[in-house]
Amino acid sequence: MNYSIIGSGSVGMALASQFARSAIPVSIANRRGPDSLISATKKYADYVHPLHLQTALDADIIILAVPFPAHKDIAATRKEWQGKIVIDVTNAWGIPLSELDNQPSSAIVAKALPGAHLVKAFNHLPAAILAQVPVISGRRRVIFVSGDDEGANTTASELVSQLGYSPVSLGKIAEGGQLVQARYKQWAPLIFQDLFKEDK
């Protein structure tokens, strides 16, 4: 299984730091090209590898850490998404519900990536918290996971655990997943909830 992070903003780099901390190789890409990422990834060079966007999208698991409107540009970069697991870290804050057909934003992202198995995760915490050590005093920081494909949810949850967090399933996107979906200018109840579980 190989991984890529699409997006080199504060959230993308926070997640990259967790891959490096966990000694898990990951590629990272943006629309500006790998040269723009060399300085930002230098301290993680053993594990975080800048790539061209098209190459990074060949990964088995793709972490989409871009502003919500940018998902359309990413979707247009690749013709075939069949079988990919895409972890959606976007938040549609400020996007009118009419532009989302009154659906959860992750459902819109999923439609743009036909054939992919979309999982919502890592979006409920700010980058500064995502960058922190995930295990504190024997407790693991919670990451909520939701998606419509059980196998993809399990795979994403396993990655969450490997990165040192504690995955908590919310079920399907249109059900429990609504608890981590921004709705226009209203945050869902679980967004910004920094919770921990005992490490077992």
Structure description:
- It is a single chain.
- With 200 residues, this protein is of the alpha/beta class.
- Helices cover 26% and strands 22% of the residues.
- The chain has a single domain, classed as Rossmann fold (3-Layer(aba) Sandwich).
- Strands 1, 2, 3, 4, 5, 6, 7, 8, 9 and 10 form a ten-stranded mixed beta sheet that branches.
- It is globular, with a radius of gyration of 16 Å.
- It starts with a strand and ends with a strand.
In terms of topology, how is this protein built?
Elements: E1 3-6, H1 10-21, E2 26-29, H2 38-41, E3 48-50, H3 53-56, E4 61-64, H4 71-77, E5 85-88, H5 105-112, E6 117-121, H6 127-130, E7 135-136, E8 139-147, H7 150-162, E9 166-171, E10 196-198
Parallel strand pairs: 1-2, 1-4, 2-3, 4-5, 5-6, 8-9
Antiparallel strand pairs: 6-8, 7-8, 8-10
Organism: Izhakiella australiensis
Keywords: Oxidoreductase
Domain Pyrroline-5-carboxylate reductase catalytic N-terminal: 4-91
Notable characteristics:
single chain, about 200 residues, alpha/beta, Rossmann fold, 10-stranded mixed sheet, 7 helices, about 25% helix, globular
